[in-house]
Structure formats: structure tokens, C-alpha cells
Amino acid sequence: MSIFDIFNFNKQKTSANTARERLRIIVESSANDRKMPKIKELQAEIFNVIAKYYEIPQDDVNIQIDQQNGKTVLELSVNIAEDAKSASII
Amino acid sequence: MSEVIVVTSGKGGVGKTTTSAAISTGLAIRGKKTVVVDFDVGLRNLDLIMGCERRVVYDLINVINEEINLQQALIKDKQLPNLFVLPASQTRDKDALKIEGVKAVIEKLKESFDYIICDSPAGIEKGAIAAMRFADQAIVVTNPEISSVRDSDRMIGILASKSERAEEGKAPIKEHLLVTRYHPERVKTGEMLGVTDILEVLSINLLGVIPESKAVLKASNMGIPVTHNKQSDAGQAYMDAVDRLLGETIKPMRFVEAKRKGIFASIYESIAGE
After folding, report:
1. Is the ipTM of this complex over 0.85?
2. Among the residues of chain A, which ranges form H helices?
3. What is the pLDDT of residues B164-198, one digit of tens each?
4. From residue B238, how far is each of B88, B148, B257 by CA, in Å?
5. A58–B68: do the CB atoms touch at under 8 Å?
6. B76:A25 CB<8 A
7. Dist CA B266 CA A58 (whole Å)
8. CA–CA distances in Å: residue B77 to residues A43, B29, B109
9. What are residue A8's phi and psi, to 5 degrees?
10. Which of A55, B193, B202, B266 has the fewest Cβ atoms surrounding its Cβ within 10 A?
11. How confident is the model at residue B142 (pLDDT cuts 50, 70, 90)?
């Protein structure tokens, strides 16, 4: 216990809370992968299509599944940097 | 010239992944272009320690199987522009680590990196062998605990026989010892093996001693390698180890002597470590 803990009104900031939140996201996403096993494949295929045109790193394509009001929402975000090289595929 | 360094131990839970993350971060802080590769196929954790777990789709196995090119699989560190992570696969098993494929990946990484850090899985099975196979140097991570020291001794033997360097009759792998979770006070009271005891058994070059530290758990919680925590004892000890790896020999070992603590030191420690 540190001196900060005594005066720590904002418990959200502890490192254990960060760990808890990170774990929650991982567990949720692997549960989603089990529920919808095709999502990873879909993400991979979308990435491959984009990679045909632009050389981008893998983490610039992001797919997230969220449950909102009983509906499943698929969110796709693709980040193509302005200086991304065109892929050299003939 | 690029250097391939395997972080290995034999025994699990001694701090291989923490060390891989901390050393590669330190090398990148010192301006070296560095990639850290997770060889723990099936049970990857390096991505968590490096804080990039949400960005992984492709991994080492996809690169070995040529399902994606290497450049695209590398995940760029959020803070250091010259640091990259190549994650392990979570779904495949160790049989997917084809040795020829690993060789091709390492050769390719050598073209663009100064340092290639291979985070070995525990054990002496296929994953561990693949991680050390093409190494030029090895960091053997050891806890001051009898079973860990014995496993390290076994690992040193394997490094000397199963690596490509050994099989091709080249100069052997340069081995370094890194003692982690060290508790100088307990060594002083005779409850824990000291560095000299460990060195007597293992007799390899001592790269560093990392003290037991609150900062290490905090670093894993946050996904920020402990080397970034420059106030922490563990962060400083890892940075010293990095400097020794880079050839600086003058630095004396810190954090190996039990210290007499005053009230202010205790308070400072709990703040820095929190």
C-alpha cells in the first residue's frame, strides 16, 4: 500500500484495474471468436484484399463485434496512411 | 551486423517474457532497431506484456506458412518507433513451428534489424529448441531457487549442443546469466541463494541482477515494459543489463546488497513501485 492509496479517491487509475479491463476485453473477444468463428477469417480476408493495393501493417485493419440493445454490430475500421506504398502485385 | 538473442530458462515462470520485453525495449531506447519474437506457440503472452494484444491478427506461424508477408505481420510499438513485435499464434500448436520456416523468418529479420530477441517457451521441447536454434547469444533467466538453477544448467548444456552454431562447428553461442526476482535482504539472512552461489554452479557471464520489484507486476498490468519505468529498481537494473549487452563493462551490479532502509526510503520505494 502506498501513500497515494490513502488519498486515492479515483480508484479507476490503479494498474490492477487496467489489467482487469484488458483481461475483460481479451476474454470477450475470444468468446466472440468462439460464437462467430468466421470473424477472424473475415478479418484476414478483408486485410488480404486491402493488402493487394496498399502495403499496410496488420493492425491497421480492425474488426470489432459489439452487442448493442440485443443487436450484434460489426465495426470495421481500416487505416491507410497517406504514405502507404502501393503493393506491387501484378 | 545483426545479433539474434534467445531469452531462455528451461523452467517456467522465472521471467522470460518480462525479460524479453524489458531487454528489447531497452535496446530500442538505446537506438537499436529491435524486434522481439514470441516462440510460445499456443500460449502467447508477449503481446500482453508489450501491450499490443488487441492488435494481433496474424502471427509467426502465418509468416512461416507464407500466408502473410513478414513486414505486414510486424506490430509497431506504440512508444518506440524502432521496436517491433512478432506475436506467436494462439490457436496452433508447436508442430507448426517448422525449423526451415523459422530459419527463413530469422534470415529475413536480419536484413532489417540490429537485434532479434527470441522469447522462448518454458521446457526443452520443440518451441524452446526453435527459439534457440539460430541464436548468436543467449540470456539464461534464473531465479535464486534451486530448481531454477538446475534447469538453467540443463539449458546451458542444450545451448551448447542443439544450436545451429554447435552443429555447424562455429563459435559457440555467447551465454549470459540474468538473475531475476532477487531479494538481497533474504540473501543476507541466508534464506536465499546469492548471486555468487548461482555463478559457482553455472559459471557463465553475469549480465545482470533484477531485484524482486513491485514495478514488474505493475508493468504487466499496464502492458508497458518495466524498462520505461526509469524510477524503478527493476527498470534501472534491466537498463544496466542492456548496456552490458551493448558492450559496456564498467557498470557495477546494483541492487545486490541489502540496504538499511529509513522511513523515507520505504515511502519512496512504495511510491515508485506502485
Report:
1. no
2. 3-6, 15-35, 38-51
3. 999 999 999 999 999 999 999 999 999 999 999 99
4. 24, 20, 17
5. yes
6. no
7. 45
8. 21, 12, 16
9. -85, 95
10. B266
11. very high
Question: What is the SS3 assignment for B5?
Answer: strand
Cell output for B156: 546451458
Amino acid letter, B168: E
**pLDDT per residue over B48-86, tens digit each?**
999 999 888 889 999 999 988 898 899 999 999 999 999
> Cβ contact (<8 Å) for A58 and B267?
no
Q: Which three cell numbers stand for residue A32?
A: 466472440
Query: What region does B47 belong to: left with phi over 0, alpha with psi -120 to 50, or beta?
Result: alpha
Is A25 in contact with B71 (Cβ distance < 8 A)?
no
Q: Is A77 helix (H, G, I), strand (E, B) or coil?
A: strand
For B273, nearest residue in chain A (alpha carbons): A2
Distances from the Cα of B228 to the Cαs of A39, B45, B121, B252, in angstroms? 35, 19, 24, 21
**Poorest-confidence range of B19-23, B196-200, B247-251?**
B247-251
What DSSP element (H or E) covers B27? Answer: helix B16-29
Q: What is the pTM for the complete model shown?
A: 0.87
B8 grid coordinates: 531462455
Cα of A61 to nearest chain B Cα, Å: 9
Q: Report yes or no: B137 and B173 within 8 Å, Cβ to Cβ.
A: yes
What is the Cα–Cα distance from B31 to B37, expressed in whole angstroms? 18
Determine the length of chain A: 90
DSSP assignment of B149-212: HHHHHHHHHHHHHHSHHHHTT-SPPEEEEEEEEE-HHHHHTTSS--HHHHHHHH-SEEEEEEEP
For the beta sheet containing B83-86, the strands, ordered from the edge strand earlier in sequence to the opposite edge, are B75-76, B83-86, B34-38, B115-119, B3-8, B137-142, B174-182, B205-211
